Amino acid sequence: MVYEEMKCRKCGKPIQFAEGAPWIRCVYCGAEYTRTAKKEKAGEVQPIGNGGNPLFEAFLPAGWTYRIIEDGSFSSLAPVCLGIAFTGPGGVQMTFLPFAYYKDAAVRANPFSPQSVPGEQFDGMSLVRYRKRAALPQYAYERIAAITKTTQLRVEPMDAGVLKEKAAWFGREAGQKLQGAVHTEQGKFRV
Asked: Whole-prediction pTM value?
């Protein structure tokens, strides 16, 4: 059974309910809600949330479903790093992981930071995880292996096609908004 989640307007606690349920009751404060039918238009950008708060805006094609996942990385920008896993017809999957887990910096010796992986360092003062920059196929392999908790993977690069143009556009737009240099890479992989 697929569940949805919203935040109770009275007490602020998360309420889980079956997808399509017409009536919802908060188990914490007893507040009751009647759901109104909201017809989502396929092929439009929709806000996707967790606990009633929009986290992402994403294009959801007709016949596709999504779920919000913990991506297993760490960022000082968010208490929990979340991503979206999309599932399409025939079991096709696409995952969006917005938080990168490395910063391209020279790993320096710090007696107060644990060395969990060679070439990687966690700075306990700033809560930033530093790692030497890896080539995109290696980075994709490491991220997929960490999320799926599998080491027996074969990651094959594929033609990125339209992603090249989109990554270049994103880099330009982000650079203007952030008023600095932004490095983007695109990749499409078969696992």
From this structure: 0.41
Residue 17 confidence class, pLDDT cut points 50, 70, 90: confident
How large is the average pLDDT for residues 97-116? 52
The amino acid that residue 104 corresponds to is D
Distance CA 48, CA 58 (A): 7
Kindly state the average pLDDT of the residues 125-133: 61
Q: What are phi and psi of 43, to 5 degrees?
A: 85, 10
Burial of 56 (0-12, 13-18, 19+ CB in 10 A): middle
Does 104 have pLDDT greater than 60?
A: no
Instruction: Give start and end residues of each alpha helix (H) in the chain.
Output: 136-148, 163-178
Provide Rg for the chain, Cα atoms: 20
CA distance 11 to 155: 46
**Nearest CA to 161 among 136, 184, 187, 139?**
187
| Calpha distance 20→65 (Å, rounded) | 14
Q: What's the rounded Cα separation, in Å, for the pair 33 and 54?
A: 19
Q: What are phi and psi of 54, to 5 degrees?
A: -70, 125
